Amino acid sequence: MSVRILALVGSLRAGSHNRQLAEAAVKHAPAGVEVVLHEGLGQVPFYNEDIDVEGSVPEAATALRTAAAQADALLLFSPEYNGTIPAVLKNAIDWLSRPYGAGALTGKPVAVVGTAFGQYGGVWAQDETRKAVGIAGGAVVEDAKLSIPGSVTRFAETHPADDSEVVEGLTKVIEQLSQAAPAGV
To answer: Maximum CA pair distance of the chain?
Structure first.
């Protein structure tokens, strides 16, 4: 049985190194694991309980919830914006946390990775993302981590999918996440 992992990228920029890292995850997923990159986080409106009612939920939020519900696990790619999690990723977590206690994140294994220009590779943002996901009901796989510093120079001429060290680290995280998923047990 194959494990389906939904990838959410916290950067909307087309040339984002975190998006490239997610593309590398799709390309190098180990046998028996499918990594699916979710598109459309930029179209999900900010979470608002007034529109989160049957018949009024925006299509982009419904698509996100459906994709997460169909996944065995989630892999979040977080850059660091001003020392913390990007709004688009936090918003996705907020939508996936509802309805309270029964959201699409509830009990799902989640890992957080990423790259940033700074010397620590965005660890503050990734830690904040893990915190938000855990509070939202996700089962954070704490030891599945990958923080890649110096993204602007490291990936200036090399796509993460072509960086053997990155591929090795990413593959390890995907394996850890797939083993935590119900289908991976």
So the answer is: 47
Distance (Å, whole) CA 98 – CA 65: 9
pTM recorded for the entire structure = 0.96
Quote the CA–CA distance of 141 and 108 in Å, as a whole number: 10
Distance from C-alpha of 37 to C-alpha of 107, rounded to nearest angstrom: 20
Question: Per-residue pLDDT tens for 148-163?
Answer: 999 999 999 999 999 9
User: Each residue of 71-119: pLDDT tens digit?
Assistant: 999 999 999 999 999 999 999 999 999 998 899 999 999 999 999 998 8
Residue 52's contacts (CB-CB under 8 Å, 6 or more residues apart) are 61, 95, 98
